[in-house]
Amino acid sequence: MGLEIEKKFLIKDDSWKNQLTTGVYYRQGYISSHPDRVVRIRTIENMAYLTIKGKTMGAVRSEYEYEIPYEEAIEMLTQLCEKPLIEKIRYKLMYNNLLWEIDEFEAENKGLVVAEVELEDEFQPIDLPPWIGEEVTMQPKYYNASLIKNPFSSW
Amino acid sequence: MGLEIEKKFLIKDDSWKNQLTTGVYYRQGYISSHPDRVVRIRTIENMAYLTIKGKTMGAVRSEYEYEIPYEEAIEMLTQLCEKPLIEKIRYKLMYNNLLWEIDEFEAENKGLVVAEVELEDEFQPIDLPPWIGEEVTMQPKYYNASLIKNPFSSW
Q: Domain CYTH spans what residues (chains A, B) (predicted)?
Protein backbone atom coordinates (compact mmCIF):
# COMPACT_ATOMS: atom_id res chain seq x y z
CA MET A 1 0.00 0.00 0.00
CA GLY A 2 1.00 3.57 -0.53
CA LEU A 3 0.92 5.43 2.76
CA GLU A 4 0.90 9.19 2.84
CA ILE A 5 2.01 10.78 6.10
CA GLU A 6 1.87 14.53 5.99
CA LYS A 7 1.28 17.57 8.14
CA LYS A 8 -0.29 20.77 6.97
CA PHE A 9 0.31 24.32 8.21
CA LEU A 10 -0.77 27.86 7.51
CA ILE A 11 1.86 30.43 6.52
CA LYS A 12 2.81 33.36 8.78
CA ASP A 13 4.36 35.59 6.12
CA ASP A 14 5.81 35.66 2.64
CA SER A 15 9.44 35.19 3.66
CA TRP A 16 9.46 31.64 2.16
CA LYS A 17 9.45 33.40 -1.20
CA ASN A 18 13.02 34.58 -0.52
CA GLN A 19 14.21 31.08 -1.39
CA LEU A 20 14.66 30.56 -5.10
CA THR A 21 11.80 28.32 -6.13
CA THR A 22 9.60 28.05 -9.19
CA GLY A 23 5.92 27.28 -8.94
CA VAL A 24 4.14 24.69 -11.03
CA TYR A 25 0.47 24.93 -11.98
CA TYR A 26 -1.78 22.16 -10.60
CA ARG A 27 -5.39 21.64 -11.60
CA GLN A 28 -7.45 18.99 -9.90
CA GLY A 29 -10.98 17.77 -9.42
CA TYR A 30 -12.82 15.09 -7.50
CA ILE A 31 -14.86 12.16 -8.76
CA SER A 32 -15.47 11.27 -5.12
CA SER A 33 -14.90 13.78 -2.34
CA HIS A 34 -16.16 11.42 0.39
CA PRO A 35 -13.49 11.83 3.12
CA ASP A 36 -13.05 8.03 3.50
CA ARG A 37 -12.71 7.39 -0.25
CA VAL A 38 -11.37 10.33 -2.22
CA VAL A 39 -10.89 9.90 -5.99
CA ARG A 40 -8.89 12.75 -7.51
CA ILE A 41 -7.94 13.65 -11.08
CA ARG A 42 -4.90 15.96 -11.23
CA THR A 43 -2.91 17.57 -14.01
CA ILE A 44 0.62 18.91 -13.43
CA GLU A 45 1.66 20.74 -16.58
CA ASN A 46 1.20 18.08 -19.32
CA MET A 47 1.13 15.07 -16.97
CA ALA A 48 -2.00 13.58 -15.39
CA TYR A 49 -2.71 11.33 -12.42
CA LEU A 50 -5.62 9.44 -10.93
CA THR A 51 -5.30 9.14 -7.15
CA ILE A 52 -7.35 7.24 -4.59
CA LYS A 53 -7.04 8.16 -0.93
CA GLY A 54 -8.47 6.33 2.06
CA LYS A 55 -9.58 7.58 5.45
CA THR A 56 -7.22 9.96 7.25
CA MET A 57 -6.07 8.59 10.62
CA GLY A 58 -4.16 11.40 12.34
CA ALA A 59 -1.56 12.42 9.74
CA VAL A 60 -1.62 9.05 7.93
CA ARG A 61 -3.65 8.14 4.87
CA SER A 62 -3.54 5.26 2.36
CA GLU A 63 -2.88 6.50 -1.16
CA TYR A 64 -2.81 4.86 -4.59
CA GLU A 65 -1.66 6.90 -7.57
CA TYR A 66 -1.68 6.02 -11.28
CA GLU A 67 -0.46 8.04 -14.23
CA ILE A 68 -3.19 8.36 -16.89
CA PRO A 69 -3.36 9.93 -20.38
CA TYR A 70 -3.56 13.73 -20.20
CA GLU A 71 -6.47 13.99 -22.66
CA GLU A 72 -8.58 11.57 -20.60
CA ALA A 73 -7.82 13.57 -17.44
CA ILE A 74 -9.02 16.78 -19.14
CA GLU A 75 -12.24 15.04 -20.22
CA MET A 76 -12.87 13.75 -16.69
CA LEU A 77 -12.06 17.15 -15.12
CA THR A 78 -14.48 18.84 -17.51
CA GLN A 79 -17.28 16.29 -17.64
CA LEU A 80 -17.20 14.14 -14.50
CA CYS A 81 -15.60 16.03 -11.63
CA GLU A 82 -17.54 18.06 -9.08
CA LYS A 83 -17.24 21.81 -9.67
CA PRO A 84 -15.48 24.12 -9.05
CA LEU A 85 -12.09 22.57 -9.78
CA ILE A 86 -9.10 23.32 -7.56
CA GLU A 87 -6.39 25.44 -9.17
CA LYS A 88 -3.15 26.20 -7.40
CA ILE A 89 0.53 26.97 -7.87
CA ARG A 90 2.74 24.53 -5.99
CA TYR A 91 6.22 25.54 -4.84
CA LYS A 92 8.70 22.97 -3.48
CA LEU A 93 11.58 23.85 -1.20
CA MET A 94 13.93 22.08 1.19
CA TYR A 95 14.33 23.17 4.80
CA ASN A 96 16.69 21.17 7.03
CA ASN A 97 16.45 18.01 4.92
CA LEU A 98 12.67 18.02 4.70
CA LEU A 99 10.73 18.79 1.53
CA TRP A 100 8.02 21.41 1.94
CA GLU A 101 5.26 21.93 -0.60
CA ILE A 102 3.56 25.30 -0.52
CA ASP A 103 0.25 25.67 -2.32
CA GLU A 104 -0.98 29.10 -3.35
CA PHE A 105 -4.59 28.61 -4.33
CA GLU A 106 -6.24 30.39 -7.23
CA ALA A 107 -9.82 31.06 -8.39
CA GLU A 108 -12.48 30.38 -5.69
CA ASN A 109 -9.72 29.72 -3.13
CA LYS A 110 -7.51 32.71 -3.93
CA GLY A 111 -5.84 34.07 -0.80
CA LEU A 112 -5.34 30.66 0.81
CA VAL A 113 -1.72 29.51 1.17
CA VAL A 114 -0.94 26.19 2.82
CA ALA A 115 2.37 24.38 3.45
CA GLU A 116 2.66 20.60 3.66
CA VAL A 117 5.54 18.41 4.72
CA GLU A 118 5.67 14.70 3.91
CA LEU A 119 7.09 12.50 6.69
CA GLU A 120 8.47 8.98 7.01
CA ASP A 121 6.71 8.50 10.31
CA GLU A 122 3.87 10.31 12.05
CA PHE A 123 5.95 11.07 15.16
CA GLN A 124 9.08 12.25 13.37
CA PRO A 125 10.29 15.56 14.87
CA ILE A 126 10.02 18.49 12.43
CA ASP A 127 12.28 21.50 12.41
CA LEU A 128 9.70 24.13 11.47
CA PRO A 129 10.76 26.92 9.10
CA PRO A 130 10.32 30.44 10.58
CA TRP A 131 7.51 31.30 8.15
CA ILE A 132 5.30 28.40 9.32
CA GLY A 133 2.13 29.30 11.22
CA GLU A 134 -0.68 27.28 12.81
CA GLU A 135 -0.88 23.51 12.16
CA VAL A 136 -4.16 22.56 10.42
CA THR A 137 -3.53 18.83 9.70
CA MET A 138 -6.65 17.79 11.63
CA GLN A 139 -8.97 20.45 10.19
CA PRO A 140 -11.06 18.93 7.40
CA LYS A 141 -11.98 22.33 5.95
CA TYR A 142 -8.41 22.58 4.63
CA TYR A 143 -8.67 19.28 2.70
CA ASN A 144 -8.55 20.10 -1.00
CA ALA A 145 -11.65 17.92 -1.41
CA SER A 146 -13.47 20.19 1.10
CA LEU A 147 -12.39 23.35 -0.72
CA ILE A 148 -14.61 22.50 -3.69
CA LYS A 149 -17.74 22.46 -1.49
CA ASN A 150 -16.74 25.26 0.84
CA PRO A 151 -14.11 27.42 -0.90
CA PHE A 152 -11.90 29.91 0.97
CA SER A 153 -13.74 32.86 -0.63
CA SER A 154 -16.88 31.87 1.35
CA TRP A 155 -15.19 31.55 4.80
CA MET B 1 -13.10 9.22 -24.42
CA GLY B 2 -14.07 5.59 -23.96
CA LEU B 3 -17.77 5.15 -24.72
CA GLU B 4 -19.57 2.06 -23.53
CA ILE B 5 -22.80 1.24 -25.39
CA GLU B 6 -24.47 -1.84 -24.03
CA LYS B 7 -27.86 -3.39 -23.49
CA LYS B 8 -28.77 -5.69 -20.65
CA PHE B 9 -31.29 -8.51 -20.55
CA LEU B 10 -32.62 -11.16 -18.23
CA ILE B 11 -32.30 -14.82 -19.21
CA LYS B 12 -35.34 -16.99 -20.04
CA ASP B 13 -33.74 -20.38 -19.52
CA ASP B 14 -30.43 -22.22 -19.22
CA SER B 15 -30.16 -23.20 -22.90
CA TRP B 16 -27.23 -20.75 -23.38
CA LYS B 17 -25.18 -23.25 -21.38
CA ASN B 18 -25.41 -25.68 -24.32
CA GLN B 19 -22.73 -23.61 -26.07
CA LEU B 20 -19.24 -24.56 -25.03
CA THR B 21 -18.04 -21.67 -22.87
CA THR B 22 -15.88 -21.38 -19.79
CA GLY B 23 -16.67 -18.94 -17.05
CA VAL B 24 -14.15 -16.61 -15.46
CA TYR B 25 -14.40 -15.38 -11.87
CA TYR B 26 -14.85 -11.63 -11.43
CA ARG B 27 -14.68 -9.81 -8.12
CA GLN B 28 -15.43 -6.12 -7.94
CA GLY B 29 -16.17 -3.33 -5.52
CA TYR B 30 -17.02 0.35 -5.65
CA ILE B 31 -15.11 3.33 -4.29
CA SER B 32 -17.95 5.48 -5.60
CA SER B 33 -21.32 4.00 -6.49
CA HIS B 34 -22.85 7.39 -7.33
CA PRO B 35 -24.68 6.68 -10.62
CA ASP B 36 -23.13 9.74 -12.36
CA ARG B 37 -19.56 8.94 -11.26
CA VAL B 38 -18.92 5.27 -10.64
CA VAL B 39 -15.40 4.21 -9.56
CA ARG B 40 -14.93 0.45 -9.70
CA ILE B 41 -12.07 -1.85 -8.70
CA ARG B 42 -12.24 -5.23 -10.47
CA THR B 43 -10.12 -8.36 -10.47
CA ILE B 44 -10.34 -10.93 -13.27
CA GLU B 45 -8.25 -13.90 -12.26
CA ASN B 46 -4.82 -12.34 -11.54
CA MET B 47 -5.43 -9.08 -13.42
CA ALA B 48 -6.86 -5.90 -11.91
CA TYR B 49 -8.52 -2.78 -13.29
CA LEU B 50 -9.66 0.59 -12.06
CA THR B 51 -12.64 1.89 -14.03
CA ILE B 52 -14.45 5.21 -13.99
CA LYS B 53 -17.90 5.45 -15.54
CA GLY B 54 -19.96 8.56 -16.17
CA LYS B 55 -23.69 9.09 -16.28
CA THR B 56 -25.72 6.59 -18.32
CA MET B 57 -27.66 8.24 -21.16
CA GLY B 58 -29.92 5.57 -22.63
CA ALA B 59 -27.55 2.68 -23.40
CA VAL B 60 -24.45 4.94 -23.63
CA ARG B 61 -21.95 5.70 -20.91
CA SER B 62 -18.45 7.24 -20.83
CA GLU B 63 -15.87 4.82 -19.48
CA TYR B 64 -12.17 5.08 -18.60
CA GLU B 65 -10.32 1.91 -17.64
CA TYR B 66 -6.77 1.49 -16.33
CA GLU B 67 -4.88 -1.66 -15.45
CA ILE B 68 -3.47 -1.50 -11.92
CA PRO B 69 -1.28 -3.81 -9.79
CA TYR B 70 -3.26 -6.80 -8.49
CA GLU B 71 -2.04 -6.43 -4.89
CA GLU B 72 -3.20 -2.81 -4.75
CA ALA B 73 -6.60 -3.84 -6.12
CA ILE B 74 -6.96 -6.45 -3.37
CA GLU B 75 -6.07 -3.86 -0.71
CA MET B 76 -8.61 -1.41 -2.08
CA LEU B 77 -11.30 -4.10 -2.38
CA THR B 78 -10.68 -5.13 1.22
CA GLN B 79 -10.10 -1.76 2.85
CA LEU B 80 -11.75 0.98 0.77
CA CYS B 81 -14.66 -0.43 -1.23
CA GLU B 82 -18.26 -0.41 -0.02
CA LYS B 83 -19.41 -3.83 1.16
CA PRO B 84 -20.56 -6.38 0.11
CA LEU B 85 -18.36 -6.89 -2.93
CA ILE B 86 -19.85 -8.22 -6.16
CA GLU B 87 -18.77 -11.74 -7.10
CA LYS B 88 -19.81 -13.33 -10.37
CA ILE B 89 -18.83 -15.81 -13.02
CA ARG B 90 -18.73 -14.25 -16.48
CA TYR B 91 -19.29 -16.36 -19.60
CA LYS B 92 -18.61 -14.98 -23.10
CA LEU B 93 -20.22 -16.34 -26.22
CA MET B 94 -20.83 -15.22 -29.80
CA TYR B 95 -24.29 -15.17 -31.32
CA ASN B 96 -24.67 -13.93 -34.93
CA ASN B 97 -21.47 -11.86 -34.82
CA LEU B 98 -22.25 -10.17 -31.52
CA LEU B 99 -20.41 -10.91 -28.28
CA TRP B 100 -22.67 -11.67 -25.34
CA GLU B 101 -21.46 -11.60 -21.75
CA ILE B 102 -23.52 -13.57 -19.27
CA ASP B 103 -23.00 -12.90 -15.58
CA GLU B 104 -24.02 -15.49 -13.01
CA PHE B 105 -23.89 -13.68 -9.70
CA GLU B 106 -22.66 -15.29 -6.48
CA ALA B 107 -22.89 -14.53 -2.76
CA GLU B 108 -25.57 -11.89 -1.87
CA ASN B 109 -26.72 -11.84 -5.50
CA LYS B 110 -26.88 -15.61 -6.09
CA GLY B 111 -29.74 -16.53 -8.41
CA LEU B 112 -29.40 -13.44 -10.59
CA VAL B 113 -28.25 -14.07 -14.17
CA VAL B 114 -27.91 -11.17 -16.60
CA ALA B 115 -26.76 -11.01 -20.25
CA GLU B 116 -25.11 -7.95 -21.78
CA VAL B 117 -24.26 -7.16 -25.37
CA GLU B 118 -21.82 -4.41 -26.32
CA LEU B 119 -22.80 -2.38 -29.39
CA GLU B 120 -21.10 0.00 -31.80
CA ASP B 121 -24.12 2.25 -31.89
CA GLU B 122 -27.16 2.61 -29.65
CA PHE B 123 -29.62 1.97 -32.48
CA GLN B 124 -27.84 -1.02 -34.00
CA PRO B 125 -30.36 -3.86 -34.62
CA ILE B 126 -29.69 -6.91 -32.43
CA ASP B 127 -30.51 -10.47 -33.38
CA LEU B 128 -31.56 -11.73 -29.95
CA PRO B 129 -30.59 -15.28 -28.97
CA PRO B 130 -33.59 -17.52 -28.10
CA TRP B 131 -32.64 -17.67 -24.40
CA ILE B 132 -32.87 -13.88 -23.97
CA GLY B 133 -35.70 -12.55 -21.79
CA GLU B 134 -36.84 -9.08 -20.75
CA GLU B 135 -34.58 -6.07 -21.49
CA VAL B 136 -33.50 -4.28 -18.28
CA THR B 137 -31.00 -1.72 -19.69
CA MET B 138 -32.95 1.20 -18.20
CA GLN B 139 -33.55 -0.38 -14.78
CA PRO B 140 -31.00 0.99 -12.28
CA LYS B 141 -31.60 -1.85 -9.80
CA TYR B 142 -29.67 -4.13 -12.19
CA TYR B 143 -26.56 -1.87 -12.20
CA ASN B 144 -23.78 -3.76 -10.45
CA ALA B 145 -23.20 -0.64 -8.34
CA SER B 146 -26.83 -0.88 -7.16
CA LEU B 147 -26.49 -4.58 -6.29
CA ILE B 148 -24.15 -3.75 -3.41
CA LYS B 149 -26.79 -1.58 -1.72
CA ASN B 150 -29.82 -3.64 -2.67
CA PRO B 151 -28.66 -7.20 -3.47
CA PHE B 152 -30.85 -9.71 -5.34
CA SER B 153 -31.33 -11.79 -2.18
CA SER B 154 -33.33 -8.90 -0.67
CA TRP B 155 -35.68 -8.34 -3.68
A: 2-149
B16 secondary structure, DSSP code: G
Check if the beta carbon of residue A93 is closer than 8 Å to that of residue A102: yes
| ipTM field | 0.85
Domain ranges, residue B60: 3-154
Whole-structure pTM value: 0.88
Closest residue in A to B67 (Cα) is A66
Neighbours of A82 (CB within 10 A): 15
Please report, for the domain that includes residue A36, its CATH number.
2.40.320.10
Q: Do B37 and A31 touch (CB under 8 A)?
A: yes
Give the one of B31, B34, B36 whose C-beta lies nearest to A52's C-beta: B31
Instruction: Give dist(CA A95, CA A11) in Å, integer.
Output: 15
Interface list for A 64-123 with B (CB within 8 A): 64, 66, 68, 72, 75-76, 79-80
Q: What is the DSSP letter of B155?
A: -
Please tell me the total count of domains within chain A. Answer: 1
pLDDT per residue over B63-105, tens digit each? 999 999 999 999 999 999 999 999 999 999 999 999 999 999 9
- Say if the Cβ atoms of A66 and B64 lie within 8 Å: no
pLDDT per residue over A106-136, tens digit each?
A: 999 999 999 999 998 888 999 999 999 999 9
